[in-house]
Amino acid sequence: MVASLCRRELSGWENRRVTRRALEDPGRVRALLFDLGGVVIGVDFGRAFRIWADLARCDPAELERRFSFDEAYQRHERGEIDAAGYFSALRRSLGLDLSDNELTSGWNDIYLGPLPGTAALLSAARRRFLLYAFTNSNATHRQVWAERFASELSVFRHVFVSSDLGVRKPDPESFALVAKRIGLQASALLFFDDTAENVEGARTAGMQAVHVGSSADIREALLQLGVEAEPGA
Fold this sequence. Notes:
Blueprint: H1 3-7, H2 12-19, E1 31-34, E2 41-43, H3 46-56, H4 60-66, H5 71-77, H6 83-94, H7 100-107, E3 111-114, H8 118-126, E4 130-135, H9 139-148, H10 150-153, E5 158-161, H11 162-165, H12 172-182, E6 189-193, H13 196-204, E7 208-211, H14 215-224
Parallel strand pairs: 1-4, 1-6, 4-5, 6-7
Antiparallel strand pairs: 2-3
Helix pairs in contact: 3-4, 3-7, 5-6
């Protein structure tokens, strides 16, 4: 759920190349698997940096420069360390002296709301396919998005969370495990994600996958599957 930060690492050519790749075998698709942040829900880590900077009386741009999806971040999303352990590492990497509660106030403020157009597309897709979600996330964030977006997430039969699974995207093993839990071959799943690295990880695991830059990419893929949403949705 790190769309804005991940996407800035991609060149425009890479975005076009991955996004425009046609589905290899639409007829094999039996279920759809969606990322959450950047696909269903808007995410902006800048909100966290601004809150932390206000509390610490420093420059949010400097916090953004220091922040990274480092080993502690990844371990947190695999459920290997708890929030207290991650925040301890975060204090060191950002050079902040904030309490866990102060860090949590920014950490939980990154969610913008449902992305425009996606809900109608999911509703249309649900009439023909089983819908699932797979997100890299942690227990603290899960408490927020699971409650705040309960209505939007109700279209999914299950939301798979990396901190529950013990593996995270883009590891191909994570996609193989999700396919096993769903009870389908990986090739029967079509995966949607806003990060090219995750898309390639899914393809390595045998899934078809779509790189999502906007809801138009979801709509285009659904049309290849014979699913049409209402115009303007």
